[in-house]
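Researcher: Next entry in the queue.
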Amino acid sequence: MLVTMCVINIGQKQRADTNQYYVCLFERTFFNGITVNCMYESYYGLNSKPFQLTPDPEFFFASKWHKRAMSYLQYGLSQAEGFIVITGGIGTGKTTVANSLLEEIEDDIAAAQIVTPKLSPDELVKMVASKFDIPTEGRSKADILKALELFLYDLNKAGRRALLLVDEAQNLPLETIEELRMLSNFQLNGKPLIQSFLLGQEELQPILRAPNMEQFRQRIVASCHLAPLSLEECKEYIEYRLHHAGWNGTALFSDEALERIHMFSRGIPRKINTLMDRVMLYGFLEELESFDADAVNEVIEEVKAEMFEPDKTGAEVTEHMGFADHPESQTIMTPKGNVIRDTKYYLDMLAELVDALDDAISQKVKMTQYVDKLMKKKFKTYVRLKSDDKRDIN
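Model: Structure for this entry, 394 residues:
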């Protein structure tokens, strides 16, 4: 059996007793289909890699913001019209949310997902068509749009509809986003035949605020911004992924170690995964049964040196933003010049209002899904009865 070995130089550190570099078997799938697991998984009794970078719906962790994003996406699906916009920083979990939604949708929705480079309107139309298996070779844009329209009508006749998830939407030029809006004009009896969800980084927000995007903004039924995980959510995230990968022991990480992980990663899931993967490898190489702050700090220094991480920590960034340790001591000035001094009171009130709105949206989504299933059931009964009547007449 072919075995691929790779030499890992952990921060240029060598074992003093052997003067050899650390060696690890990473996960590799060979030509005969045999998979060799990364050795730290076996060492910690795991059955899968808990902190991989590739988005995996099986490891979806529903933080407060991710729950809200999923609720908005489900709400948009239940409305069967309008645009849903989800934004967030790099690595905050937008693609994971999208993949989780695709895992849950029913058979009556034909879904396609595209990750967009800087596409022109014509290129976008071709990509959308190809995602729905519509031939585009040698066809003009008008021909492709006509074929797409016929495809959407056929879906509707079969009791289905189309959903398009556009990832990395901040790369789209204004005219291409406008083309997306034009696609939503494919309608039958006042209902759109295709619905689009946009996921993108923060740069998408000013694009959609542009004056000439007013028509598009009017069709946005909900939007949500994915914030980084809080310290408590970071702890829950790490614990969730470890247990989902098969960990059944006691706590692996001290509170201080988890605080260092959160501070360095700034609560961004992808950065947490990158760091945690290295921390677990370090633990295997050093034969650690648990991790304290010193162990995590050593790995952080290595990662910073190798990945050109800036020296600023999450705490320093927060302090630079003006909300260091006492947000209640800050003052806020409204656009009309009114000064709000007791900011903690209003922030708490706003948080309660947001939670109440989330609960209301969640309940509405559940009710809409229930009514939708009930209507489908009644429609099937109606079709069956009509069919029976026709047979009786004949």
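Model: The radius of gyration is 26 Å.
Researcher: Noted, moving on.
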